[in-house]
Amino acid sequence: MGKLDGKVAIVTGGASGIGKRTAEVFVEEGARVLIADVNSDGVGALIGQLGHNYADGAVVDVTDETAVERMVQQAVRRFGRLDIAFNNAGVGGFSPIQDYPLEDFMNVLNISLTGTFLCIKHEAKHLIGAGRGGSIINVASLNAMQATEGFAAYCSAKAGVVMLTKVAALELGRHKIRVNAIGPGLINTPATEGLKAVPGVFDAFIHESPMGRAGEPEDIARLAVYLAADESSLMTGQTLYVDGGQGLKKYPELFDAFGIQ
Predict the structure, then answer these.
(1) Cα separations in angstroms, 87 against 125, 126, 138, 246
(2) Which residues are the active-site residues?
(3) Distance between CA atoms of 50 and 33, rounded to whole angstroms?
(4) Looking at domain 8-242, does it have CATH number 3.20.20.70?
(5) Deepest in the core among 41, 68, 100, 129, taking most CB within 10 A?
């Protein structure tokens, strides 16, 4: 018997990395999942892996409110209900503040923060109407609380996700809807592979982790199951950091690594 038997979940950014493993583990725990991503090939491959009885997919740009609304409607139409949302879609960027192109800065905020807001908005609207409560889980980052050189947009967006999570929890608790966030540190995913190409950067991350290793998508997915399940029925408004203790130390000095003055 799985911890999520009979439940239906949406996973955004579900085609790779943390989102992919979370979708897999949700299905392993008995849920049916709508996988949403801009990567149509990745969505299709994961549906093929999990099986059409357990997974459906949608190509969704989370900055498009109409597409987000359709995503929620599709999950309910396909599986008959919605209980869980894992809002994971996001994007990073890197630039000194004085050189940060406005278009790039806004792109990070639009996808990582505004996209999360739009998902919460339409997920909550359905969950309120259904009257059964539910669990919304947002993916923040260690960078929500730990400042990092070159990450002005990303740190700001993820800090916004943490506060958005608190406000949503405050407003939605009366409807028995819980809203929490997970703040990953360095996780081995396709999105972080580029760090390994810069000499010394990945090793510097590991040096600043008391646990001495990077995380795996599995580390985040298992926490997501706990937050999605009835076991965490009194938990809301929280951000749980899964970073190997890196937040206790410091972020590597990225400007030095990239030769930026």
Answers:
(1) 15, 15, 5, 23
(2) 154
(3) 9
(4) no
(5) 68
Q: Collapse the DSSP code of 8 into the 3-class scheme (helix H, G, I; strand E, B; otherwise coil) and give the result.
A: strand
Residues 193-210: b if buried by 16+ CB within 10 A, e if exposed: eebeeeeebbebbeebbe
**Which residues make Cβ contacts (< 8 Å) with residue 90, sequence separation at least 6?**
13, 111, 112, 115, 116, 139, 157, 158
CA atoms within 13 A on the CB side of 13: 23
- pLDDT tens digits, 132-152: 999 999 999 999 999 999 999
Residue 95: strand, helix, or coil = strand
* Torsion (CA) 151, 154, 155, 158 in degrees, nearest 10: -170
CB neighbour class for 63 (10 Å; exposed up to 12, middle 13-18, buried from 19): middle
- And the tokens for 83? 């209980």
The three-state DSSP-derived secondary structure of 99-110 is HCCHHHHHHHHH
212-246, pLDDT tens digit by residue? 999 999 999 999 999 999 999 999 999 999 999 99
For the chain, state the CA radius of gyration: 18
Q: Which residues contact 116 (CB under 8 A, 6 or more apart)?
A: 62, 87, 89, 90, 138, 161, 164
Residue type (1 letter), 104: D
Tell me the per-residue pLDDT of 72-108, one tens digit each, with 9 for 90 and over.
999 999 999 999 999 999 999 999 999 999 999 999 9
